[in-house]
Amino acid sequence: MTDDHDPHDESRPDPFPVPDPDSPFPPLEQGRTAWEQPGPDAEATVGETDPVPTDPASDWNAGADAHDLPTLEHRLSALHRFAFPPAPPLDDEGVAARDRRWTSRTLVLLTLFMLVFNAASLQNWSAQQAPGWMSSTVQQLSDVWAEQVAQLGADQPRAAIRETYETARDQRFIGQPADAGSTPATP
């Protein structure tokens, strides 16, 4: 693969610029970190002087952008992005429509779930309504619906949960009466 760009092109920013002599920052010492620098109270040994290191070439470039650097991307990811470009962001009306669709779908699914797996509650509710043509019709429909759901076996999870709850509710400590209003038996 050949390079199409000229390395001496002035229009491209240099990724490794030379140090700026007008920089307000002091030059760095090579080989020593800030905590290894001798302090003001350090004793100087006679005859020993460290050579003054030169400032290393800085890679600072004010015009550089980290997003301009080439990145390696998997070919399948690039193909996916090309074949299925991301959709433009939604405006407020689009967001509101999406939220309404999500809410409607959720309510419909929950209603169907409750109709199938909790038909006994519909039966109990219809039995508690005031007598009348409408309430008796709803009660008869709920009875037929509960029988059909029972034939499918969809009422078994509700019955198992109800039985577990009633068993746990009826549990008593040793010596506790079965009825909360009665007194314990004395031997």
Structure in words:
With 187 residues, this protein is mainly α. The chain is 42% helix and 0% strand. The protein has 5 helices and no strands. The termini are far apart. The mean pLDDT is 78.
Task: Describe the structure using short key phrases.
187 residues; mainly alpha; elongated
Q: Give the integer mean of the pLDDT values.
A: 78
- Give the helix tally: 5
Radius of gyration, taken over Cα atoms and rounded to an integer in Å: 40 Å
Tell me the fraction of residues in β-strands, as a range. Answer: under 5%
Instruction: Report the principal-axis shape.
Output: elongated
- Identify low-pLDDT runs: none
Q: What percent of the residues sit in helical stretches (DSSP H or I)?
A: 40-55%
Category by helix and strand content:
mainly alpha
Span between termini: 99 Å
Largest sheet: none
Helix and strand element order: HHHHH
Care to count the β-strands? 0
Q: How do the helices and strands line up, and which of them pair or pack?
A:
Blueprint (H helix, E strand, L loop, with lengths): L74 H9 L8 H26 L1 H9 L5 H20 L3 H14 L18
Helix pairs in contact: 3-4
